[in-house]
Amino acid sequence: MDSNKLGGKVVIVAGGAGLLGREFVNAVVENGGIAVIADADRAGGEELQKSLKSSKAEFIEFDITSKASIEKMASSLMKKHGKIDALVNSVYPKNANYGRKFEDVTYEDFCENIDMNLGGCFLLCQQLIAVFKKQGYGNIINIASIYGVIPPRFEIYEGTEMTMPVEYAAIKAAVIHLTKYFAKALTGCNIRVNAISPGGILNNQPEEFLEKYNSYGLSKGMLEAKDLNGSVIYLLSDDSQYVNGQNIIVDDGFVL
Ligand SMILES: NC(=O)c1ccc[n+]([C@@H]2O[C@H](COP(=O)([O-])OP(=O)(O)OC[C@H]3O[C@@H](n4cnc5c(N)ncnc54)[C@H](O)[C@@H]3O)[C@@H](O)[C@H]2O)c1
Question: Is the CB of 229 under 6 A from ligand 1?
Fold first, then answer.
């Protein structure tokens, strides 16, 4: 439903060309904001921007692991819009070996995935916080996961090729805590930092897995990416002015 809840806010959706990110981009535009699709995937980002047919969505290519790339993005947005109101971090970098069972993960792969994902999250937040401090306000939403909150439910992956990657558990728990660290470190700076921890999102998973996953849901089970939009818009809007350092779990009760 269209609204003007965001009233012209400039929102960087980092990872905006991804499964979740593209829904956030849509939601920002539908709620009166300007969505910056910031992604390493130029083709995907530009295609999304065209498909939206809106002057309120624009694409910027960026790499979350490069300080220079983040600085370039921030300075070009400041030049164009004179402000950046918020960042939604939905980037999901991983190397070619990501997703193996933990017994098969090498030290090098573990470290590389932590570097790119958690290190990237740190770098992006750190650089945007510097911009927000100069500007006098800001708002960050990190997309974490239920698997940063509870240990894996390994039983739901039995009989499939899927697992819950060991790096993911470490990264997501750390993203939730990093979020609280930044919120607290920014006391008095008028910058909020929150996280959203989604449950599993439908994306052509095998039926066998879905049945087991859904047995933990309280109504719907696996969610659709758009089911997160309400929480994202809430945190982006002034309705959540005093919500800070929180992790909002959106999972149909899966973690209970
Ligand atoms: N999909 C799920 O079921 C699910 C569930 C819970 C949490 N999450 C979290 O939501 C977030 C988004 O997940 P998703 O499923 O949309 O992932 P996705 O892979 O569909 O999208 C991630 C986006 O990040 C971009 N990206 C990758 N490396 C990059 C880099 N170095 N610099 C800039 N952009 C880069 C990709 O191009 C892609 O568009 C992740 O943090 C993920 O952990 C996802």
Answer: no
How many A from CA of 233 to the centre of ligand 1? Answer: 18
Q: Mind listing the pLDDT tens digit for each residue in 18-76?
A: 999 999 999 999 999 999 999 999 999 999 999 999 999 999 999 999 999 999 999 99
pLDDT digits (tens, 9 = 90+) for 184-194: 999 999 999 99
Query: Distance (Å, rounded) from C-alpha 63 to C-alpha 40?
Result: 5
Is 167 close to ligand 1, i.e. is its CB under 6 Å away?
no
Ligand 1 lined by 149 (C-beta under 6 Å): no
Helical (H) or strand (E) element with 203: none
Ligand 1: atom nearest CA of 21 is 16
* CA 23 remoteness from chain centre: 11
**Ligand 1 atom closest to residue 120's alpha carbon, by position in its atom list:** 31
For the chain, give every domain's residue range: 10-250
CB-side neighbour CA atoms (13 Å) of 11: 36
Tell me which CATH homologous superfamily contains domain 10-250: NAD(P)-binding Rossmann-like Domain (3.40.50.720)
